[in-house]
Design a protein that fits this description.
Blueprint: H1 3-15, H2 18-40, H3 49-77, H4 82-87, H5 89-95, H6 100-132, H7 139-166, H8 170-202, H9 207-219, H10 222-234, H11 240-246, H12 254-264, E1 268-272, E2 279-283, H13 295-319
Antiparallel strand pairs: 1-2
Helix pairs in contact: 1-6, 2-3, 2-6, 3-6, 3-7, 3-8, 3-10, 6-7, 6-13, 7-8, 7-10, 7-13, 8-9, 9-12, 10-11, 10-13
Length: 322
Amino acid sequence: MSWDVVARKEFRDALRSKGLWVLSLVFTAFFVIPAGAALWWDVGIRGGQEVGLQLLIEYIYLNIVTLFLPLVAIFAGYAAISKERTSGSLKLLLSLPHSRKDVIIGKVVGRCGVVGVPLAGAFIVNALFLIASRLTFKPGLYVTFALFSMVFALVIVAVAVSISGAVENSLYSIIGNMTFFVSITFFWNLWANSIGDGLGEYLGVTGAANWTTVLFLKLLNPSQAYKTIMNSMLGDGSNAERLARYRMFSGGNNSEQATICSDVLAGNATEVPGFMGNRTVCQESAQSVPLYFSDGAALFYLLLWIGLAAAVSYYTFNQYDL
């Protein structure tokens, strides 16, 4: 096993590159600007000092992480292998006692380090700003947010490097990576809903079976899996996990919402008066959320992308005649 040699070389090369320092500045700017706003203005304060950090994470930081962090992660990983293939240095690397599997694993681990180190630094600097602000700083909540955000970023890096190993050059790699980014950011939920509509219209799959399929497909989206885990962590009480899954559905009539709550998420669906008429709310019940929709399952689906991407990349990379 020599993948660790490849990983160390990848990271050392990045330390000598200006790219790592640019990444550090980008990460820091993304996170410190909202924290600075909380320090000097009233961003996050209107909900109260006690819940200000939750509001800042839920409405600002989660959007920053899911929209901008994948772009930075893709920038860090899209040319990891394809660039060396084009330049010919990959042949030299493989002439050493490294297998193609070692190269894939080493490149993934090395680029994860390239992204993880500046991201960790950005979280530390950002924490100092938040501590100095008028918000009530909650170390446990912030550390949880930082850790899951790093996991999400590293998953995207692993996918980016894997795509780089599966294609012939960096142009194809950036096209593949940007297609992946656009899909998980803008279109995945639309596709999941369309599949649910198709199951109902053409196969007669309706009710709980239909909504279970749609929710499962949505959770397979790494961006959505990360976001719903964080929404669960930000919620209060034992019903937070259920409400985090429930809020993944918007619209629909009260009957559909009741089915999602009671028959899919094992909750207690109750109608309450609302501004536009009665609406269905999903309250706590004696049953817990089904295991395959739990936070642990969502985390498993998120990490599954690493193995899936690496397997596809290794199979494709192994077929190429360098």
